[in-house]
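Issue 218. Parser rejects a valid record. Input:
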Amino acid sequence: MSDFRLLMISAMYENGGNTTQRLLDGHPELFVYPFESQLGTRFVNDHLTSLFPVKYRWPVFTLDATPEQDYAAIIDEETKVRARTPGVSKFRDHAFEFSDDERLDRYVELVGELGRSRPSNVEAFMRATFDVWKNHRPSGREEIYVGYSPVVVVDAETILDELPRADVLHVVRNPWSAYADTKKRPVPLALRSYMLLWALSQYIALQVRARYPDRMHLLRLEDVLADPRGVLSAELGLEPAESLAGPSWNGTHLSEVYPWGTIRTPTSQANRATADELSKAEQDEIAARAGPLLAALGYQGFLPGA
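Output the parser choked on:
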């Protein structure tokens, strides 16, 4: 059995996944992926494909593919764009000494050692990333690889079944602040569509946590923002390193999480103020569509009167 340890972060859009990933960045026990680790492939095709982009799903590989073809199938858009066409990447202002071709070579080498399977392919991909990232600043004490794909919670049960030493961390945010931030996107989801996906994501997270209480973690962004160092270290069994207190990238402090996500200022005050950007009608409709999940997640009193 491989000793590969993976912590996969999941969060519905604008629920704080990027923020949590940036808070974990720089922790001496963690290899934190530089951007979203979009491990999905175009071969994902199931009952959820019409709801969630395949780039955010757990990957599917064809039986007759080579390791080189497997590597090419992994979408990993943010990292590949930054490596191959840095001038058009939203992360172009952040130094990233990384060759996608070198990672491919290392990936093929690792698959040759591990064997070709979905768990081995994921392990090889994550390990290869850090093996060739030249300006990465490790502590030398890293033990766990950390990835982040929005809504990968829908595949959490598969991840935990296939990787015995993996954990999934699902982050949930109150739906009012989350939808208010979603509205800031150039082409936002409609409220009705957004709330369907929000509710489904949280339902699946609660269901999987009941089946895997020790490896499926569910945290509210509100609790993380109130005490990131204490909450994250306690939930994930990490040492309470000072790096957990604020967002960073490759160990360098970030004054705001953007452009990793739409949450610019990760504070409790900003989070609460964002919910108030909505109209009363929007607030009431969100409450109605969230239904019993508000009580299940402890949000029934977050927005009085909604």
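Fixed in the parser; the record now loads. Residues 223 and 231 are 7 Å apart (CA to CA).
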